[in-house]
Amino acid sequence: MILPQTPSQTIGPFFKPSLVRSADETLSRRESRGERIVIVGRVLDGDGAPVDDAMVEIWQANADGRYDHPDDLQEKLIDPHFHGFGRAATDREGCFRFDTIKPGPASGLGDTLQAPHVNVSLFARGLLKRLVTRIYFPDESLNASDAILNAVPSARRSTMIARVESMSPTLTFRFDIVLQGENETVFLDV
């Protein structure tokens, strides 16, 4: 006798009460080194409707380009006041926000430098596994040589580059995550 397999289940929506605490969206402290920035955005479905029950998770290097991780052995400064990891739940309009610092260029393969970027994971109802992308910053000279960014077809790279929304009082970047459709964000296969 062959028994039917258990069907796949989606995750969530349990992020807000279970996995996101109110301070998780603030990565930097007053003592953190580097330029303070804010990253705002929305998570949108294929029809442009807000995804109001997603969790956005980020991981980034400090202002000197070093990750707060024991496997990062770069000879760059450690910032004891910056941990580089954050989580935010989306609100009714699909909005999220992170208060952080602008990352420095991290080391890549073969002693190359990666363009400053923020690693992003997205979890939401209907997804069987997380989606992964990166946030790059406009007008960075290293964008031209970044291996990951340049592996993306040129017509789609803009979906991985934040845009400046405001310069005052804090430099604010907008990065919307579009799950499907014409302006779908490029997601990485990791």
Task: Summarize this structure as a short list of keywords or feature phrases.
single chain; 190 residues; mainly beta; 5-stranded mixed β-sheet; 4-stranded antiparallel β-sheet; 2 helices; globular
Describe this structure in words.
The protein is mostly beta strands and 190 residues long. The protein is 4% helix and 26% strand. It has 2 helices and 9 strands; from the N terminus they run αββββββαβββ. The strands form 2 sheets. Strands 1, 4, 7, 8 and 9 form a 5-stranded mixed beta sheet that branches. A 4-stranded antiparallel beta sheet has the order 3-2-5-6, with no helix packed on it. The longest helix is centred in the first third of the chain and has 4 residues. The radius of gyration is 17 Å and the shape is globular. The relative contact order is 0.22.
Largest sheet: 5 strands, mixed
Task: Tally the helices.
Answer: 2
What is the N-to-C order of secondary-structure elements (H for helix, E for strand)?
HEEEEEEHEEE
Radius of gyration: 17 Å
Low-confidence stretches: none
Structural class: mainly beta
The N- and C-terminal alpha carbons lie at a distance of: 37 Å
Mean pLDDT: 89
Strand content: 25-35%
Tell me, briefly, the overall form.
globular
Number of strands: 9
